[in-house]
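Record 1 of the preview.
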Amino acid sequence: MSAPPRTRAAQVRLTDLAAWKAEGRPIVMITAYDHPSAEVVDGAGVDIVLVGDSAANVVLGYDSTVPVTTDELLVLVRAVRRGLQRPLLVADLPFGSYEVSDEQAVATAVRFVKEGGASAVKLERGGTSARRAAAIVAAGIPVMGHVGLTPQTATALGGYRAQGRQGAQAADIVTQALDLQDAGCFAIVAEAVPAPVAAHMQELLDVPVIGIGAGADVAGQVLVLHDLAGMLGEKPPKFVQRYGHLRESLCRAVTAYADEVRTHRFPTEAHTYPISDEELAAFRELVRSK
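->
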């Protein structure tokens, strides 16, 4: 029996995010990469869905986010777009797709909106990236910033580790966030930043700060669907709370299937399509005549 059609809900707008921050309503953001996942998170009522370049590690098998291409991410963004109704869809700009020039940054962002159906794009770091963000915003495309642990430059940051644990570095991260806000970013992701630093950042910024490993005193939270659902084998980062154990469930399901195939318990007659005796006889006669 097919599922009933979903009721179309009003899409989340940038003005909604600003209003929710003002009234203290936490913003729920999640990272997802395919159509079935998009339908799940949409049905759960999340506010923002990010198709992150973390797809490189999580679903494409790369060792880091660096190798993933714009074309690879566009396939995933389109799949997620087809599964969403309510949430705001944000697409990551992958490494190497926006750093060279403002023109390159705008052209890449346009592809994610025009070809992928994204409502906004996200880029990492301040500095030059803030100038790229300003150019994209000037072209009419909303931009989300990202500071703290920025996976695209994790090697330069000393690996995948918390950032801003020294005073000068923490001040620099806050400065990057302010620069991104000044460039027109509608929200800033703060990743793996000490909670007091993130809280101070949110006090200074007018736009929402979306935390991931940045404490509770920010406007919203984001986690990767595969992390929170327990779909990955490795130990999750410290900031992840697991709300499910889907990898174990999937392993049990596949193991049970393999066992039933090998012991001739699957498929049964209930899983096959019938043919009448008359048509079967006709088929056999036709086969014999060939």
